[in-house]
Amino acid sequence: MHLLYEEGGDIKIATVQSASGAGDAESWQATSLSGKKIKLKAKEVWLRFEKPEAQAVMNDASAIAKEIDLQFLWDCAPEEEFGLLDVAKEYFGDQATISQQASLAIALQGAPVFFRRKGRGRFQRAPLEQLQAGLAALARKQNELEQQTLWQQELVAGVFPEALKPQVKQLLFSPDKNTSAYKALIAACTATGESPAQLMIRCGAIHSPLDYHQGMFLKAHFPNGFAHNESSTIDLSAYEAVIAELPVAKVSAFSIDDSGTTEIDDALSVTSLADGAHRIGVHIAAPALLISRDDPLDQLARNRMSTVYFPGDKITMLPDSVIAQFSLDEGKPCPALSIYVDIDAQGQTIDGSLQMRAELVPIAANLRLENLEDQVSEMSLQDEVSTYPHRQELAILWVAAKHLHAQRQEKRVANGLRAEQLGVIDPNALARDFHFQIKQVEGRERVEITPRQRGSILDTIVAEWMIFCNSASGRLLADHGLPGLFRTQKGWGPLRTRMQTTPGPHEGLGLDYYAWCTSPLRRYSDLVNQWQLIALAKHGVTAKMVAPFPPRDATLMGIAADFEACYQAYGEYQDRLEKYWCLRWVAQDSEPKKLFVRHLKEGMSRLELIPLHLPIPELAAYPRMTRAEVIISDIDLLQLSAGVRVLQSDALVKPAEPVLEVPQDNASPEVK
């Protein structure tokens, strides 16, 4: 005997091997068509039959089920609950065969839109309204499947469907995996063996791997676009009213930046005093005079947290119009928060001479490193014949900068760290600063990467005086019990360097206090600290009562955490785009390039000419700073990877070991 039953939603047939019990308690030991041994009870069995053979019945039933008209079957079925045999007579007549009955079981079980399941082998036809709604849903699903298939075919053929073009970013960066569009994209990728980004580039939906890297970042951090709203401005009358109340400083200040800097937010001045002493002024652009906590510009800056820098462009924290109002551009007096300290004739700072005030600072010049750096040397600074701008002031700043550097090194050594050398450590050391320039040459982008060795006299002057300003600002906040965003470094581990709202030492820089304050036009942490410092400059010991952020302010703690996360994400994006353009630099010539690398650690090496880090397992066993000639090929601009082959082993030469690749917060060029 054979038994028809349902298992897991499928209709199956088994052949009885033995039986036990009787009536409703009857049960069977049986073997399914697949050979599986099972036990069935009477209530689980839909049909019992002796002939024909089980496999023949299943084959015939499967074929007949495909021909059954479900709408006609629904019409034939009674309105009340019914069994398989009841509807078989209505559909096939009184002489319905076992195969026909089994086919109805398959059809009924597989048509939930037409029939509700009421138990094993029991059904009830769906109400007319529900049937119509279900059929409409099936029709929509069928249309979606047909559309999905059509989109898939177009994508495989290299044509991006017009209807999907508005969804490109969503499909790439935050897809809804239940949509037909995503299913078509993944099916096409499976067929071609490509990633979604590769397929979209081939279809022209995105133009290049650069669009992919930029789009991924913008989708995460600037989902509504990075352009500033034209209404995000400072009222001119309010600006003029605040400016009118500021005293004009009796100094002639100048800035030192590279030619690409447009947000000039720091400048220096030197004023002669009696007995060969001088007063050094560090002047910081002061947008906090007009931007208030929680106003629209503050909300904009807090949302962005920082200017985003990357090769070829940048996304500014503040609108260009606001930057233009506060940037310390030459030829005009600019609102600034100034910190002054007196130095004696030997360049040593004089205790108790620190002053801070908000004022208008005349900016005499915006010096550019590229135009001046080669002229400034120990000898030229002392040479009265040298005629480059602000030579005398630079000479005074340089002498004092050396003292500031020496004082910091004493504390580094006391902290158990190695003292840093002043200036360029080794002419053979790997460069750490690079200027990326993307040009259009014969209709194609070509990248030029110019290295710049850090550690010149101008570098040191700017670095030491900005570090001094940040340190002095941190001390002022700490001494007056004002919270701020302090940059601290203590101990070891992943959280060694962090942003916090309470004072703490920065062991890497050799400082008791350190608060980023010198770049309020491009870093939100500096803008926050400037609010606190302006309150201190205006109100002194009562500043805690009027400062925007009182002690233990929960909002400030949240800002510290948000800034840390955002600043890290922006840095990773800058690194990602730098790696992209470095690989473009390698690949832009038709021939594979032979280049020299230096091994750093654990098989990771860096090219000498550009800041491109690549894994080279063959060098893992060699000492740090081992030099090797390699050939680079198989560049993948989407994965940002490349194949590297080490050439002759006799090309390996170990040079004198320089100090390089020092973490930013450990290096004295940590300035702005």
Can you describe what's shown?
With 672 residues, the chain is an alpha+beta fold. The protein has four domains: 2-126, no CATH class; 130-206, no CATH class; 236-569, no CATH class; 586-666, no CATH class. It is 37% helix and 23% strand. Strands 4-3-2-1-5 form a five-stranded antiparallel β-sheet. The protein has a five-stranded mixed β-sheet with strand order 9-15-14-11-10, with helices on both faces. Strands 22-21-20-23-24 form a five-stranded antiparallel β-sheet. Helix 9 packs antiparallel against helix 19 (554-587). The model is unreliable at 654-672 (pLDDT under 50).
Give a quick summary of the entry.
The protein is of the alpha+beta class and 672 residues long.
User: What can be said about the biggest beta sheet?
Assistant: 5 strands, antiparallel
Strand content: 15-25%
Helix percent band? 25-40%
Shape: elongated
Span of the ends, CA to CA: 89 Å
Category by helix and strand content: alpha+beta
State the low-pLDDT regions, or none: 654-672
Number of helices: 19
Mean pLDDT: 88
Strand order of the largest sheet: 4-3-2-1-5
The gyration radius over C-alpha positions equals 38 Å
**Number of strand elements:** 24
Tally of structural domains: 4
